[in-house]
Design brief:
Number of helices: 14
Low-confidence stretches: 1-13, 17-28, 145-150, 580-584
Radius of gyration: 38 Å
Helix content: 25-40%
Number of strands: 25
């Protein structure tokens, strides 16, 4: 049955009919269809025209607002609910650009049995006709019916937001201590007033003295307090120091049970150990009253503990806080496990490379050699940079500088294989390009899947020349005594070793007594956003004053070019000492 003044009437609600968009409703908006779709919907549904006047309300909205449909139709939503006046910004934005939006609304309605304050979640969709916005559909769901529940909901949303943000704030590097600092910085002050991360000592590195029986000794990786607490908390152990926890401490109990532990310090029980009691007394004097300790684990392996402390005036930890802390610890544990595994591999690779890059063989008393190896920062795995000096017959010596592709233990092991093969081939007294040819073939046949660049130089101290061959490596630099500029000597460059292509050539470069041969890996000169040729040309500015030492030269080179390096650096400088009393040996026969 239709009403004479309000459009189509149906049980529980009404539709205000119109024939055109200008009259308030899109022409395709059929009242019967709307009623069939939304009359029985448990969510409150309203349709408003482009002036935000109600043109349809379903029974659920009537019950929600405590008003019949007739009291809505033809009136704006804030005329129906005056307390919501001024809340039309979101709806007008949807009408303007057609993008759906949602918002949370709080206020009072006319419902007689409703609470003083209500909370709803409203979603708005634009209704179009001929590409123009002619109306708006609002779907409203009641979230809670009390202010207290609203506060709890906001707290829950805050916890969810905290967890969702943790993924991008924690574990940004593979450095373990950095990850621990990110964790404490993240939870203070958003979740706790003080936070500490204590981890078990690393398996590789310096040994740690044994603690007393039953005592848990951990390394403090990070400590953070809110405001003034940050400084005063340092008396509990600076990051990097080892901290002992008695068996009855919250940290020790947490690790023993692998479960979160809440330790309330306001009335801590008597009979605790002296160290634990002293720690709690000192904490209480600082205004701290409660701790929540959660285990940090990964792949069922204990890594340490996260301690969260709240001060006077902060709410006590509840079950939801424990759940959030446990989830944070689980996520951080994965990042810490990755960092620890990286640190373990990094330490092994570093030790392996250090042993392989020990002092090279002494070629001859009349040949002076200086070397340096500088790893990149701790966020980068050890590379495959290597160098060597091998004595040959007739007073000659072979110098090599190489760089194995990749990083880590595999690159260091591959580097050792390259160097061993090179030393073997050097004894055959071949010219540099033939050594590279044979080394390339041996590497290809060995199945070693890591290519390498290599620069070989054979120096004849009697002939005054240096024979050089390159397998994809950067050119050598020669610094003549008494000259103002070095020589960056371009040499024929063949493909990297391990490709099987061959095609190497030897170039002869003048190299008399006192001339310094300088060799390096790309970490010294390669810079992001700069052409490598431009970087290499800067080495032409290297000089060595008369009587200058090779060690001093390398120090100046690294100070000048190595500070902003993003990769490992290996450098080698050598020269023949001038000694006119030496006579070149006469070949037999």
């Amino acid at each position: 049955m239709e009403s004479q003044d309000s459009g189509a009437t149906r049980a529980g609600g009404k539709v205000l009919q119109a024939d055109a968009c200008d009259d308030g409703m899109p022409s395709f908006f059929d009242p019967k269809t709307v009623a069939a779709l939304f009359d029985g919907n448990p969510a409150a549904v309203a349709v408003l025209d482009h002036n935000l006047r109600y043109t349809y309300v379903n029974p659920a909205l009537e019950r929600l607002n405590g008003l019949p449909a007739a009291s809505h139709l033809g009136r704006t939503f804030f005329q129906v609910l005056p307390e919501l006046n001024g809340r039309a910004t979101t709806m007008r934005a949807v009408l303007a650009d057609g993008k759906p939006r949602e918002e949370t609304i709080s206020g009072r309605t006319w419902a007689a049995d409703g609470p003083d304050q209500q909370l709803w979640r409203a979603t708005y969709h634009r209704l179009d006709a001929d590409g123009e916005g002619c109306g708006l559909m609002a779907i409203v769901v009641e979230i809670t019916d009390t202010v207290r529940q609203h506060e709890e909901l906001e707290q829950a949303r805050g916890r969810v937001a905290l967890l969702s943000t943790a993924a991008v704030r924690i574990g940004t590097t593979l450095d373990m201590d950095t990850t621990c600092r990110e964790l404490t910085d993240f939870v203070v002050p958003a979740f706790a007033d003080v936070a500490a991360v204590d981890v078990f000592p690393a398996e590789v590195g310096h040994s740690v003295r044994r603690p007393a029986p039953g005592v848990v000794r951990l390394r403090r990786a990070a400590l953070r307090g809110d405001g003034d607490l940050d400084e005063v908390m340092q008396e509990f152990g600076h990051p990097g120091e080892y901290v002992d926890f008695a068996p009855d401490s919250a940290v020790a109990r947490c690790l023993a049970e692998n479960e979160p532990v809440i330790d309330d310090w306001e009335d801590h029980p008597h009979g605790r150990s002296a160290s634990t009691s002293d720690r709690i007394t000192t904490s209480r004097a600082l205004g701290l009253r409660q701790a929540l300790v959660v285990p940090l684990t990964a792949r069922t392996r204990p890594l340490g503990a996260l301690s969260l402390v709240r001060a006077e005036g902060s709410p006590s930890f509840d079950d939801q806080d424990v759940a959030v802390a446990r989830e944070l610890a689980l996520r951080a544990g994965v990042d810490l496990d990755h960092a620890r595994r990286y640190d373990h591999e990094h330490s092994i690779a570093r030790e392996l490379q250090r042993s392989l890059l020990s002092e090279p063989w002494g070629p001859h008393p009349h040949v002076e050699v200086a070397t340096r190896y500088r790893p990149a920062d701790q966020g980068v795995l050890v590379g495959g940079d290597w160098f060597d000096v091998v004595p040959l017959r007739d007073g000659r010596h072979l110098k090599a500088m190489g760089d194995v592709m990749g990083h880590g233990v595999e690159a260091a092991v591959a580097m050792s294989q390259y160097r061993s093969l090179l030393r073997l081939l050097a004894q055959e007294d071949l010219p540099p390009h033939q050594i590279l040819e044979q080394l390339d073939g041996m590497v290809e046949r060995s199945g070693l899947d890591r290519a390498a660049t290599c620069l070989l130089a054979v120096v004849d101290r009697f002939g005054g020349k240096c024979e050089v061959a390159s397998a994809g490596h950067l050119p050598p630099v020669f610094i003549d005594p008494g000259t103002a500029a070095a020589r960056v000597v371009p040499v024929p460059v063949g493909p990297p070793l391990g490709t099987g292509f061959g095609g190497y050539r030897t170039a002869s470069v003048p190299c008399g007594p006192g001339t310094v041969l300088f060799m390096y890996t790309d970490g010294l000169v390669e810079r992001r956003g700069e052409d490598i040729d431009v970087s290499v040309r800067r080495l032409a500015s290297l000089t060595l004053p008369p009587g200058g030492g090779l060690e001093d030269l390398l120090d100046r080179v690294l100070d000048r070019f190595g500070d902003d390096a993003e990769d490992d650096i290996a450098v080698l400088a050598s020269r023949i000492r001038e000694d006119r009393s030496v006579v070149r040996p006469t070949p037999p026969g």
